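Q: Focus on the chain.
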Amino acid sequence: MSLAEENPAALVNPAAAPHYNAAASLKLSPFWSDTPATWFAMAECQFHLRRITDEQDRFCILVAALSKESIRLVTNIIEDPPQNPYTTLKAVLLKSHQLTDFQRVEKLHQLEPLGGRKPSELLAIMLEICPRGQETSL
């Protein structure tokens, strides 16, 4: 007997299948070390949509999305996961990849002029780089 014959709802909603594992089917885009907070916001939307709440599942999915360079920064966490592995790994990655306010200001000063971009595109880039709380100063 096929899965569809056993459970017709599984054709419409794979989560209705008794052996469906949402975590195993999720593959995140490679980690964005230049904008980690944005990457984590997108990843957590994927977790929410698939109802993945388990720390260990989130941890494994996150590790699979890391580059070799990022893994080097967190090898100790990967090899010996703490009590809350996803939360800990997320905090360490954010801390190690976030720019300081000084680095953000330097990056703003080094931006290329408008060029062929729309003004709204340049503004979006500037707001992404701008130190938190200083957005109204632009």
In short: The mean pLDDT is 81. The radius of gyration is 20 Å. DSSP finds ten helices and no strands in the chain. The CA atoms of residues 78 and 110 lie 36 Å apart.
